[in-house]
Write a structure and sequence with these properties.
The protein folds into five domains: 37-210, Endonuclease Chain A (Endonuclease, Chain A, 2-Layer Sandwich); 238-402, P-loop containing nucleotide triphosphate hydrolases (Rossmann fold); 416-631, Rossmann fold, CATH 3.40.50.300; 703-830; 843-1003. Helix 5 packs antiparallel against helix 8 (196-224). The longest helix has 29 residues, at 196-224. The chain is α/β, with parallel strands linked by helices. Strands 1-7-6-5-2-3-4-8 form an eight-stranded mixed beta sheet, sandwiched between helices. It is built from 41 helices and 34 strands.
């Protein structure tokens, strides 16, 4: 063996002895991080997906080898953007699969082969020889990262299934890596292994034969038995069950109208069918706008209700009025000669599908004629641009609202792969920038519809692909003239497309949809794409759509979700839908991650994190990817926008008020998916402060003392980060004579299930007696003394607080705010870390950290600095800004791994300083010190300074002395010399490794 190889091997053995063995034998032993194994599995709640682990390794390697039994189009599509980047960087890869069971998909293999940096081969297994390898090998210099386990390269295996994989890190001389590399090379060079061109045609034929045979077998099973397997398996999902419960409660209260708001594809029709069955409705009218939908709905109802009722169709082509359950088109039912054949009380329930259309005269005519016991409306899009108030039609009774994220959680929708792609740029001009203009010059128009842009769009569409045998796509454009011309240019380049707008008739739309979705008509009659501007956002049921292309700036999260929703309905033979969003330098780009995440906190850090790590955080098999330029454009938009803007808050309020037909309560904002109401607390001191200023119909007026008290509770307590103050206030509200001793109250809370310490109750008392706040805040909230101490050493409500509670309106406002805060605690902060008042991965401000550590006093941020030691509580919070501003002191704080952090001391500090004593617990007084990590990614703009809580940590080894060099400047800013400050590095071991999605977000640039 060569000398340098021997040296590497010797070092490897040393590292192995230090660390790797300890990881397998005892997880509490400090493992050498260079060789620490990892468990790789799927759990989006914890930010873990096998897919993301593979992406990370692919983007860091110099070369890779993959051997998997099965490869599907669904499995490789989420990796296409990564593979493209690797191709551009010239990173080579070898991928080995097999013909075993003829399961790998030829289209997926072909797409991989088309990448110039990939070499793909197939191991031809015999009938009696299985091939079950699932291994991913990534080489970087002399180190191999190897993931081996249960995950094939299929969509569910990489994103959703219960999968167990282990990642091993080794040099090439490690026994494990040596053997797996030898095995891979043996298989790769085997006589049974063929190169792409020598196997693909034969395998494609074998795959098709096997696919057809499997379908025949399934059909035979269905047809041979008397049992209808689909009917046997059919049961309401969680969303449908919640809807039925809510509907039953509404009817018990005497309500006669109800609205079901449900994302496209979530099973509204089945929900209605189950509800009618559970409510024993014998006569039902189901209204639709197309005969095809009436037939589909009838089929769904028959599966749920069976033969216990009779079914009929009323349409232009069919007249079957003598039925228990009648499915009718509005066009036919609204005719006088049809309506008058029915009694006004003929139906117990009338269900209106796609009820957002109900403003039309034909719908209104039917609604006004019949007198049912229940009128039920169903829609995915209740907000209307035509001014018709859907909510009022149903007396603002929303039975259930099923949102996109809820539907993905319950696996009700087809998985989607969203790709944010850089819009074409020529001569420094971005396409979306041009489209923002009200008028376009001829030159701009020619650019937007020019050959270069059209080729670019089609090339990207072909690369990212679709699920199924051929593309069935919708393209959303920004303008009609652009859409028409783009359609013409695409047709000239060999695609088959049409452009549709509101000017086209229903017949023309239906014909286009048939041409798009049909597999039976001649190929030259089929469509690849329908291009559109102002239709197909909603109310159109085209389950077969397998690709959606967005060629327009994001106008709002609602519209983006509507357009994305066109592809989310499940269909036979459709495993996923591809969403291609061409992103320009547009100021509204920040709305994209808001729409995809469903997060209405409007917190910039949350939005950035979703852009970077969305695939880890999204439920199910769906994935989200942005290329580098698109990501930068979105980050730029996030940086520039003000997400606590008054207009945004007013718009959100007005929308919710319109939906409810009343002034919303604080809890309504969360219940109906609106903006987080705490934004109003921060901007206006309280929700009342907003209503007083912007709601003309709000008559309540508080005096200055009442406003101050409500503002304190709203801004300081109602975020719910600690419940103790809120519980004390609730007890006072319920019993004005309430009094308590600190220890007794702590014991009572502990018995009720809240892990409690006397120190926390004492801290809450300091807060409620206005002794914790900084001097300036003590003056600002001088009326906020809620407790007083008695001679018997107990605490009870102060006279001033009891006096203002005499105002019943004010008392109810306090009660609502307190209950809101307690709900927020239960929802977001109740899973406390160990015996602390913090929850892992939640965010806290400087003030909240001081309070929740039970300190006597709130500290100024300047005094806290990067850390601060409180001798009474023996707590030492470390605050780290991981990304520094350009003019910040360049502290080299850095993660070595998810559970190892290097952080610098303040300066000037020597390793013999008291700071080092506190960190390393070198004195008797420091033995019980507890060090907690609080970290933020960005020192952000105009947002609150909030830090992720990352748990407790311990300093290990010894402090490492360093010297820091700084420029000395004069009054003009000119450099006049340098100074040297002493400091030291601390090597921290975190008790809990940072969850993977958050860790990646923090450390990535």
């Amino acid at each position: 063996m060569k000398a340098d190889h021997q040296e590497i091997l010797t070092e490897y053995v040393k590292q192995l002895e230090k660390g790797m063995y300890s990881a397998f034998i005892d997880g509490s032993v400090n493992t050498n991080l260079a060789y620490k194994p990892e468990f790789v599995s799927n759990n989006y709640h914890e930010g873990r997906k096998v897919l993301s682990a593979l992406e990370n390794e692919l983007l860091q390697c110099e070369e890779f080898y993959i051997s998997v039994a099965f490869i599907t189009l669904g499995g490789i599509t989420p990796l296409l953007q990564t593979f493209k980047e690797l191709e551009e960087r010239g990173i080579p890869g070898k991928i080995l699969t097999t013909n075993y069971l003829n399961f790998s998909e030829p289209l997926a293999i072909q797409k991989l082969h088309e990448l110039s940096n990939l070499d793909i081969r197939m191991y031809m297994s015999d009938d009696d020889e299985g091939f079950h390898t699932k291994g991913y090998i990534f080489k970087n210099k002399d180190v191999y990262r190897i993931i081996v386990g249960s995950s094939n390269m299929t969509l569910t295996a990489l994103t959703k299934n219960k999968e167990w994989n282990t990642k091993i890190i080794s040099t090439e001389f490690g026994e494990y890596s040596e053997r797996i590399l030898t095995e891979f090379q043996d298989l790769w060079a085997s006589d049974k292994t063929r190169e792409y061109h020598s196997f693909i045609d034969e395998y494609r034929t074998a795959f098709e034969i096997s696919r057809k045979q499997r379908q025949i077998a399934r059909d035979a099973i269905q047809e041979s038995g008397a049992l209808d397997f689909e009917l046997y398996r059919l049961k309401p999902n969680a969303m449908q069950t919640a809807f039925i419960t809510s509907l039953r409660d509404l009817m018990k209260r005497g309500e006669k109208r109800a609205l079901l708001i449900s994302a496209t594809g979530t099973g509204k029709t089945y929900a209605a069918a189950f509800a009618m069955r559970e409510l024993n409705q014998e006569k039902v009218l189901f209204l639709v706008h197309r005969e095809q939908i009436a037939k589909q709905a009838q089929k769904s109802f028959r599966k749920v209700l069976g033969t216990k009722v009779s079914y009929g169709i009323i349409s232009g082509n069919q007249k079957e009025p003598d039925a228990d359950y009648l499915f009718a088109t509005v066009q036919t039912m609204s005719r006088d000669e049809t309506l008058t054949n029915f009694s006004k009380h003929q139906f117990q329930t009338i269900i209106i599908d796609e009820v957002h259309r109900a403003g039309a005269a034909s719908y209104q005519k039917i609604v006004e004629y019949f007198k049912p016991q229940l009128l039920l409306g169903m829609t995915a899009t209740p907000e209307r641009t035509d001014g018709f108030d859907i909510y009022s039609l149903f007396d603002h009774n929303i039975a259930t609202e099923i949102r996109l994220q809820d539907a993905m959680e319950e696996n009700l929708l087809c998985p989607f792969h969203y790709f944010g792609i850089t819009e074409l740029e020529v001569n420094g001009q971005v396409a979306h920038d041009l489209q923002n203009n009200e008028t376009l010059s001829l030159r701009d128009f020619q650019y937007l519809t020019g050959e270069a842009r059209v080729k670019y769009i089609l090339r990207e569409a072909d690369y990212y692909g679709y699920s199924g045998n051929r593309v069935k796509g919708i393209i959303f454009c920004s303008r009609k003239d652009l859409g028409r011309e783009l359609s013409c240019k695409m047709n000239q380049m060999g695609k088959q497309t049409v452009f549709l707008s509101g000017e086209d008739s229903q017949y023309e739309r239906e014909q286009a949809i048939r041409r798009l979705t049909s597999d039976d008509m001649p190929r030259n009659r089929q469509l690849d794409y329908i291009l559109t501007v102002d239709i197909f956002n909603e109310g159109v049921d085209i389950p077969e759509i397998n690709q959606v292309i967005l060629l327009r700036p994001t106008e709002s999260p609602i519209i983006l979700v509507q357009q994305l929703g066109r592809g989310l309905r499940k269909a036979v033979g459709k495993e996923f839908v591809v969403i291609l969003d061409f992103i320009g330098a547009y100021t509204n780009n920040y709305m994209i991650p808001i729409a995809l995440s469903g997060d209405r906190s409007y917190n910039k850090d949350n939005i950035r994190r979703y852009v970077q790590e969305g695939s880890r955080m999204i439920p199910g098999c769906s994935t989200i990817h942005f290329d580098e330029i698109s990501r930068k454009r979105i980050f730029s938009a996030i940086d520039s926008v003000r997400l606590n803007d008054t207009k945004l808050l007013c718009d959100a309020y007005r929308k919710l008020k319109y939906q409810l037909d009343r002034i919303p309560s604080m809890t309504d904002f969360s219940a109906y998916g609106s903006v987080n109401i705490t934004k109003y607390f921060m901007k206006f001191n309280s929700y009342y402060g907003f209503l007083k200023k912007y709601e003309q119909e709000y008559p309540v007026r508080l005096d200055a003392t009442e406003e101050q008290i409500l503002g304190f509770i709203s801004k300081k307590l109602a975020f719910g980060k600690r419940p103790e103050e809120l519980l004390i206030l609730r007890d006072i509200l319920h019993n004005h004579g309430f009094h308590f001793r600190i220890k007794a109250y702590a014991d009572a809370l502990s018995r009720s299930g809240i892990r409690e310490k006397d120190a926390t109750i004492a801290s809450a008392v300091r807060n409620l007696t206005n002794r914790f706040a900084k001097d300036s805040d003590q003056k600002k909230f001088s009326a906020c003394v809620f407790l007083k101490k008695t001679k018997e050493e107990t605490y009870q409500a102060s006279t001033g607080f009891l006096r203002v509670l005499r105002n019943d309106t004010f008392r109810k406002m306090i009660e609502e705010t307190v209950e809101f805060g307690l709900q927020e605690y239960q929802k977001n902060y109740s899973n406390r870390y160990k015996d602390t008042n913090f929850q892992l991965y939640r965010k806290y401000t400087y003030e909240e950290v001081c309070l929740l550590l039970n300190w006597d006093k709130n500290m100024n941020a300047q005094n806290l600095g990067g850390y601060f030691y409180d001798a009474r509580t023996k707590t030492l919070p470390v605050f780290i800004n991981y990304d520094k501003t350009d003019d910040a002191i360049a502290y080299e704080d850095r993660f070595l791994a998810a559970d190892r952090l290097i952080a610098l001391s303040k300066h000037p500090r020597k390793i013999t300083s008291s700071d080092a004593d506190h960190f390393y617990k070198r004195t008797e007084a420091d033995r019980e010190n507890r060090i907690f990590l609080f970290l933020r990614k960005n020192k952000d703009d105009r947002e609150a300074k909030e830090f992720y809580f990352l748990g407790e940590m311990q300093a290990q080894g010894d402090p490492k002395p360093i010297q820091m060099k700084f420029d000395k400047v004069d009054e003009t800013g000119a450099v006049i010399g340098t100074r040297i400050d002493d400091a030291f590095e601390v090597d921290y071991q975190l008790e809990v490794p940072v969850r993977q999605d958050l860790y990646n977000y923090i450390v990535k640039e």
